[in-house]
Amino acid sequence: QVQVVESGGGWVQPGGSLSLSCAASTSIGSIYRMGWFRQVPGSQRELVATITDQGSTVYRESVKGRFTISRTNANNTAYLQMNSLKSEDTAVYYCNVYNVGQDWSNYWGQGTQVTVSS
After folding, report:
1. Which of 65, 67, 90, 108 is most buried when burial is the number of CB atoms within 10 A of its CB?
2. Does the pLDDT value for residue 20 go beyond 90?
3. Residue 100 in contact with residue 53, Cβ under 8 Å?
4. What confidence tens digit (pLDDT) does each residue in 74-84 have?
5. What number of CA atoms fall less than 13 Å from residue 84's CA on the CB side?
6. How many CA atoms lie within 13 A of 103 on its CB side?
């Protein structure tokens, strides 16, 4: 089984910073990719950033230069540093874990709210 637990998030004014953490626990095997998605009510969940076990990253265009994803393979933890936050970054952020021990499955955390407003 795979358990995914997020922490961080909260409220910040525009221009501020927040950080998110995601810890994945598993006995299945190594994790290929970890990442963050976000969702606002009435909209589809969208990719924010992902990182592979080799450190390859993908970012949503609108967060490039403002968000940084990183990962510690030893303890299966991923981080998302969010700077220069904008009101449009407000959403529930979900940690995603993909392909654990070659199972090609997706696993999700419970989500954490990020609110950017004055």
Report:
1. 67
2. yes
3. no
4. 899 999 999 99
5. 7
6. 15
CB-based contact 6:20 (threshold 8 Å): yes
**Three-state SS at 89:** helix
* Residue 3: both structure tokens together: 């358990």
Which residue shows structure tokens 């700077």? 83
Q: Provide the token pair at 43.
A: 């909209």
- Residues in Cβ contact with 106 at an 8 Å cutoff, skipping those fewer than 6 apart: 96, 97, 98
- Contact status, residue 66 vs residue 83, Cβ threshold 8 Å: yes
Helix/strand/coil percentages in the chain, nearest 5: 10, 60, 35
